Amino acid sequence: MATWKDSAHRLGYLIDTHFDRLRYGLKRRLGYDQPLQVVPYDGYGNQETLFLTGRVLEDHGDIDTTDQETLWSNLVASYRRFGSDEVPGLQIRATFQDRSVETVTDREGYFHVALPVMRSLDPDLSWQSITLSVPPQAMLRRQPPEPVTGRVLTPAPHCDFGIISDIDDTILITGATSLLRMARLTFLRSPSSRLPFNGVAAFYQALQTGGPYRRPLFYISSSPWNLYDFLVDFMGLNGIPAGPLLLRDFGVQPERTIGSSHQAHKLAQIERVMKTYPKMPFILIGDSGQHDPEAYAQVVATRPQQVLAIYIRDVTQNPQRDAEIALLAAQAQLHKIALLLVENTLQAAEHAARHGYIDSATLPSIRADHARSAEPLDLIEHLVGEDD
Fold first, then answer.
1. Which residue in 3, 142, 199, 291 has a CA-CA distance of 20 to 30 Å to 124?
2. Residue 61: its pLDDT value, please?
3. Are 119 and 249 members of one domain?
4. Could you tell me if 86 and 57 are in contact, meaning their C-beta atoms sit under 8 angstroms apart?
């Protein structure tokens, strides 16, 4: 039975949809159309199908992410990320190996394509290139945007395992257990001033390169797609290996109720990844603060053959939470799967080295990365406060 909250949610969806259509239709009729940009998000695929998501937005120019950050410049960048103008109902063409498929952007400007692989892929090539364009007939009175290239990760068919990692408070210091601190760090800092947890870059590099084939990494987060460029820049600046980022659409959706959870999003994305690579096991990495242990335990229950090990960073420092995770670890052990609650990255790396998931020769570099000192608080952090 629908609750009043769900009814209000559906009403909000109808109002939001009507407003978006009115706004976009009025802009087109008045000729007040900005140039458009097609924004591809890194996808993934196998030897049969490539999957790619993207978004079409009005082009207001690149977001400035220079090192000369100020409180004002970070606020402006955040406003532009979350105040983007999506373009619904636009035809998009995706081309790979001389084969094209077409789709249409949804009401939030997103599009999703699945391209068949017509010829065998080069096993030494980790990323495939897809051309994305807007057919000229899809535009009314203006030139279509220039074609862009999207990337799709295609692991070698015989890769020994992959890695699925959370982002917030797993690789990126976020303070997700404190909404105020998380908001401050999200809106008032730039990618260059955000810090990863010590040792993460070296550990993930060791996981990626520790086998006969380059291992794929997938990053699943409940953060909105609006933060995609921010997260990509952050990872690149800090030497964290690239991989598809599987984020959330925070727009009002009719099928999403008020109770829709971060956990449900992560489970759905993990299921999609594992179905794409049904013979590949995975190491799952998360933290104790946002139900990652519960989500990963459900994966163990449904797909135990595809879980190699689970590492959970302890960010809560709560005895009751530790006991809850210990119970989940005992349940995972019934399937002979280790679920470890670790204080830091180094503990996970040492376990991985003992079990052959990484080359033990990489431990010195991981220890060195783990031992680095966090940078002191800068002026912006002093202005907004250290913590609650």
1. 199
2. 54
3. no
4. yes
363-379 pLDDT, tens digit each: 999 999 999 754 444 44
Task: Quick: pLDDT tens for 81-137.
Answer: 555 678 899 999 999 999 999 999 999 999 999 999 999 998 877 999 999 999 987
Same domain (yes/no): 194, 148: no
Assess contact for 280 and 161: CB atoms under 8 A. yes
- Residue 69 φ then ψ, to 5°: -85, 150
- Side-chain-side CA neighbours of 80 within 13 Å: the count stands at 16
Q: Are residues 74 and 174 in the same domain?
A: no
Question: Are both 166 and 142 inside the same structural domain?
Answer: no
Question: Domain residues for 361?
Answer: 162-384
Q: Return the structure tokens found at 299.
A: 């994966």
* CA–CA separation, 207 and 216 (whole Å): 9
Main-chain phi, psi angles of 266, to 5 degrees: -65, -40
Residues 94 and 132: beta-carbon distance below 8 Å: yes
> Which of residues 103, 136, 153 is at a domain's end?
153
Sign of the Cα torsion 327, 330, 332, 334 reads negative
Domain identity same for 183 and 38: no
- Which CATH number does the domain housing residue 47 bear? 2.60.40
CB 101 within 8 A of CB 130: no
Beta carbons of 202 and 362 less than 8 angstroms apart = yes
Same domain, 55 and 142: yes
